[in-house]
Amino acid sequence: MIPWLSGDAPFPPLAQARTHPNGLLCAGADLSPQRIVEAYRQGIFPWFSAGEPILWWSPDPRMVLFPGEFKISRSLRRTLRAGHYEVRLDSAFPEVIRACAETPRAGQPGTWITAEMQHAYRQLFELGVAHSVETWVNGKLVGGLYGMAIGRMFYGESMFSRATDASKIAVAHLACFLEDQGFGMIDCQMNTPHLVSLGAREIPRQAFIADLRELVTSGEPPARWPRDAAVQTWN
What we know:
Layout: E1 4-5, E2 24-28, H1 33-41, E3 45-46, E4 55-57, E5 62-65, H2 74-82, E6 86-89, H3 93-102, H4 115-126, E7 130-137, E8 140-150, E9 153-161, H5 166-180, E10 185-189, H6 193-197, E11 201-203, H7 205-215
Parallel strand pairs: 1-2, 9-10
Antiparallel strand pairs: 2-4, 3-4, 5-10, 5-11, 6-7, 7-8, 8-9
Helix pairs in contact: 3-4
């Protein structure tokens, strides 16, 4: 059995996280902004399906993307050079998280981005903690991602794409923006082939937590990211 959290009970030590399934730490508590921020600062995140209790995770190893290690394929570089798109930050957060929830994913019959989760992260957006990066073409939202920023640490949550390379464009601009702003790491949580193709890699949880502790105390980023901050010339 895993620990059950009630009220303001603290999270258990990460060493207690289960090996199978990898990283399952505890259940219960709530999705208040304070609880979620507390979790992320410790390297813990919520992940559960509708009808399940709130489950909290801290897998080992941890999938991360260092902004300077983002991989640009030849086809993506051509797309970035062409520039037939617009990238905006924080201009359509509710639409992005809803699109991430509604996008079908191979091997996943439903979504973990439940109505409860969407409400929680919209609250975090209003507090300036959660952010969206959006790809627009001809005034239409065609792709993007959302996540959280604490100190100089960014936590990627989910992405979606309705046009070729639309989500990759958002990640490319995010990596550039974060590197310019002195962010040290993007938490990608779990290993997927798509993340590997973008340059993400696994590191031991102990190393992740060591970097995390330094980054989350490295000063707070702007509460609102400027819409044009992701403009970048790709050579």
